[in-house]
Amino acid sequence: ELAEYTPRSTMTYSASVEHSVSPLQLLKLFCPNFFGTQYPQVNTYWAGSYSAFWETCLFVGVLPAILAAWAAARGWKNRQVVFAAVLAFFSLWLALGGYGLLYKLFFYFAPGFDRFRIPGRFSAFSSFALAVLAGHGWSIYRGADSGPRQRKSSSGLLLIAGIAFGLVALLLAWVRTGLPQELIGGRMPREAVTIIARKACYSSLAWIAAAAVLIALAGRLRGRFGRWLGLTAVFFVFAELYVFSNLFLKGPVSPDELYLRNEMVRRLQLESERELFRINARDLDRPGIMLLRRNQGSIHRLFLIEGYNPLQLKRRMVDVQTERRFDLLNVKYRIKVDLERKTAGFVLHPTYLPRAFIMHRWRVVESDEKIMETLNSGQFDHRSEVVLEQDPGIDMPAGAAHIESKVEVAEYGPNEIVLAVESPEPGIVVLSEWHYPAWKAWVDGRQVPVLRADYALRGVAVEPGAHAIRFTYSSEMFRLGLLISGLAAVMSAVLALVAWRKGIW
């Protein structure tokens, strides 16, 4: 339901394949730092833009990768191995995105698939599959009897380790002869990239060699010492993954320090208890300049007009002139930047409209293009007139500019908003929240249509008098999904009971 009203409803193929895993990046399975890293304080990643490092990360550890390859080659009689191998293969193929045909076929022919983006995230499925394969690979290897069968298993695993070692050695030789400038691009100097890639190769060669030693020992040691090798292998994998990722997971600043509740935040919080308003905390022309940190509004319960939403609505007001947009979006404070003094602070936006207000003049404009022209027109007063897309079904009063009316927010929650309205004449009550079909409205207990006001906001037509308007989030699609999930849970429980009674479990 949501995707239909977001930019993803018209997702292009080129936008969908952003952060595809290139075939060369499959080297990350054995040499994860070859393209650099992107940690909170250190960014040496030279093979992609911001976030490419973690979106295209394939690394599961060299020992699991070797064991997974061994299991895929030897365990085809085991259904779990077959499932995991197929999952790993197809998820890696999908992760290639624009570099592989499979993703393109899915994008154009699989229902709903054209809503996806960032193919590299499919590698999460391959990580799970490789972990399952690695466990089976170790079990197959350790379960082999001593003798020819065990020696064959040991030789096969060491051969895979040797191939991995050889690939990284060739990679190191390539680095020494000079990486092509087309591969490096202009993100970092060639000398710096060479140092990063060379260090990564040396580190990976050491880990592969250590994994080969562990495999060789596992093939020779049996009995009491052999039983400890499984635990040793677990610690080996943990150590390698920890060395690779601990700096990425461990930022130097605690959340309390990062999202400091300073005096400015406290003043805004106290003021927001008396009045609902929004804040523009980031410079629109220079997004890197911000007075509150990313997502700080959610933490300290402040309404910001900036944020992160992977499924933001398609109909917003980004094309409305800034001053008018801030008025309609209830922006009371906005950022002001002084480039000469290199300072920034909040200033009052004095013409802002309240979170809910009533208009006694309106005009009906049906096309989106004409609506946007009207909202930006110098002949249109957005503070005394509202643009609707359909007739509200009430008569516009005469002399609407001089009517005294009152709208108050009685209750405000994530799923329900209640307004108290007093008006001597008919009007359109506008709520400065995004219009969305799952939001329904009731006036004095009677359901009424929610009008789309000023291109993207919610509006309700009211007759003269005192009214209580209740907006409630009520999604039919959610209820349908809940019903399907409930039926699926009941069916699963019944099947599980039947399987248990028949001794299948």
Can you describe what's shown?
It is built from 17 helices and 15 strands. The chain has helices spanning 13-16, 52-55, 62-74, 79-95, 101-109, 123-143, 148-177, 181-184, 190-220, 223-227, 229-249, 255-258, 263-274, 296-300, 322-328, 368-376, 476-501; strands spanning 278-280, 303-304, 331-338, 343-348, 356-359, 362-364, 386-388, 406-412, 416-423, 427-434, 439-443, 446-448, 451-453, 457-462, 465-473. It has a 5-stranded antiparallel β-sheet, with no helix packed on it. Helix 4 (79-95) runs antiparallel to helix 6 and helix 9 (190-220) runs antiparallel to helix 11. The longest helix has 31 residues, at 190-220. The model has no long low-confidence stretch (mean pLDDT 91).
Strand order of the largest sheet: 8-9-15-11-12
From the alpha carbons, calculate the radius of gyration and give it in angstroms: 30 Å
Which overall shape is indicated by the principal axes computed on the Cα atoms? elongated
* Share in β-strands: 15-25%
Question: Could you estimate the helical fraction of the residues in percent?
Answer: 40-55%
Number of strands: 15
Largest sheet: 5 strands, antiparallel
Number of helices: 17
Structural class, please? alpha+beta
**Low-pLDDT windows of residues:** none
Distance between the termini: 38 Å
What is the residue-averaged pLDDT?
Answer: 91
